[in-house]
Amino acid sequence: MLMKLTLARGLSIQNSPINGKGCFATIPFTRGHKIAEYTGERISDLEARKRSRNRRILRICDIDGRFSLDGARGGNGTHYINHSCQPNAFMKTVYGHVLFFARRDIQRGEEITIDYEQTLHPDSKRCRCAAENCRGTINRRRT
Q1: Are 117 and 104 in contact (CB under 8 A)?
Q2: Opening angle at CA 10, ends 24 and 105, nearest 5
Q3: pTM of structure
Q4: Which residues face 99 on adjacent strands?
């Protein structure tokens, strides 16, 4: 049974030049303002690691080092936000809620991106953001 995806206000899902599908603004977002909350099935980090081994495309977001959200199950479109080394948004966890905020003014039609920094993907996963400062991988190298 296919479930209909209910998108967060102000977002659309379209083909992305970065990777597959992306999350795009249908309204302008002002710098510093909330874009949306990441939603999905709440799972343990152990379950998140298990699921990451069986999927090529991950839609899992860590909440607090103990729990994660699987946006592929019950997500609102924010799970299509792609990585960029020069993002226009950032993610912040507030009282167990994962929120996205505009790093700068975002215009209608722009793809919303964040710097993933650390993911369940291997550190070798290549970045295709094409930003001037692209580091070449999705995960930030640990020093």
Answers
A1: no
A2: 70
A3: 0.86
A4: 37, 92
